[in-house]
Design goal:
The protein is mainly beta and 326 residues long. It is 0% helix and 54% strand. The chain contains no helices and 30 strands. It has strands at residues 4-6, 12-19, 22-29, 36-41, 51-56, 62-65, 71-76, 82-87, 93-98, 102-107, 113-118, 123-128, 134-139, 144-148, 159-161, 168-174, 179-184, 187-192, 197-203, 208-213, 219-224, 227-232, 238-243, 248-253, 259-264, 269-274, 280-285, 291-296, 302-307, 312-316. The chain has a 5-stranded antiparallel beta sheet with strand order 1-7-6-5-4, with no helix packed on it. β13 and β14 form a beta hairpin. The N and C termini lie far apart (41 Å).
Length: 326
């Protein structure tokens, strides 16, 4: 299998969308040739930059400079659609899960794979510990696997969480508290890694489409049907829930908890909501296909959305602010 650091094939361009009194100028990041499935921002690194990683059905994840969308590199090696991705906070490693029945860890400096984890079915979702040591995977095997890269056998799971009835669509890893969360079917499950057992579950009226930590890991942001739920990330108790106007595919919370952004499974618009009241603040059009994923930058100055149309768009949290390419 040839795995190389591919030459650039994408760039960012601007388009304007007016909503109310604000003029939102979104930056369009091209380069992917098929739908974008997942996005992940790093924290700020020593250079003062941060980075954005995208997963796409074209099988080639792309790493970009987060504040501008400028291309940094493309990871070539997967032989099927890439469904899930995460980047470590220090931007040193990327993790991807693919329809080729593998999950891979990549060195973001060299672009080379560090390790590949073989599975028996499609890997739909991944997460990684902040220090890059542990990798969590889930997918159509209907189980969760935890890998330890410092283990003598790093490609053998050190934890196997089984007993699920549905494909795992989304998962989260918290090694600080020894917790794993996953969404499969209409359930969000909570697992204790120390015992490798499920400790609780939350059941919804509609299927869980996405789970995402808030930046401070205070909340788990969960989408199911036309609702967005905010759970305490340690106790898994429900803190807030809001009805939204679309079937939500994804949601992300601003780092300072000012607002949250929602994408729809059959909706082309990007929607902003007030976190205190749940009221809809803004609706922006730009994508030409449903929005599959969204994430805020670490400073909260922008958020990214990935779409069925094969593009990533960067949106200003506060339109008109001088920032990045704006």
């Amino acid at each position: 299998m040839s795995e190389t650091w591919q030459t650039p094939h994408g760039s960012a361009s601007a388009s304007t969308e007016s909503s109310g009194s604000a003029k939102q100028i979104s930056l369009t990041c091209t380069g992917h040739s098929r739908p974008v499935n997942d996005l992940s921002f790093s924290s700020f690194v020593a250079t003062g930059d941060y980075f954005l990683l995208s997963a796409c059905k074209d099988s080639i994840p792309i790493l970009r400079k987060g504040s501008t969308g400028d291309w940094v590199g493309s990871f070539k090696g997967h032989k099927g659609a890439v469904w899930g991705t995460r980047i470590t906070p220090n931007a040193s490693l990327s993790v991807t899960g693919s329809a080729d029945f593998t999950a891979k860890v990549w060195d973001n400096v060299t672009g080379q794979p560090v390790v590949s984890f073989e599975h028996q079915h499609i890997v739909k979702t991944v997460d990684v510990s902040d220090d890059g040591r542990y990798v969590l995977t889930g997918g159509n095997e209907k189980k969760l696997k935890l890998f330890d890269q410092r283990s003598p056998s790093p490609t053998t799971p050190v934890r196997l969480l089984e007993g699920l009835n549905n494909d795992v669509k989304t998962c989260l890893l918290d090694t600080t508290h020894g917790l794993v969360f996953n969404g499969d079917g209409k359930e969000m499950r909570v697992w204790d890694l120390r015992k490798s057992t499920q400790v609780s579950t939350r059941i919804f009226e509609q299927e869980v489409t996405d789970l995402r930590f808030s930046w401070d890991k205070k909340y788990i942001v969960c989408t199911a049907g036309k609702r967005v739920f905010f759970y305490n990330a340690i106790t898994a108790s429900l803190e807030k829930q809001f009805d939204v106007s679309v079937d939500a595919s994804c949601a992300a919370l601003h780092p300072q908890e000012l607002k949250f952004v929602v994408g729809g499974t059959n909706d082309l618009w990007v929607r902003e909501y007030d976190f205190a009241s749940g009221s809809e603040l803004e609706v922006y059009k730009g994508h030409h296909g449903p929005v599959h994923c969204t994430s805020f930058s670490p400073d909260g100055q922008l958020y990214a959305t990935g779409s069925e149309d094969g593009t990533i768009r960067l949106w200003q949290t506060f339109p008109g602010t001088s920032y990045g390419l704006w």
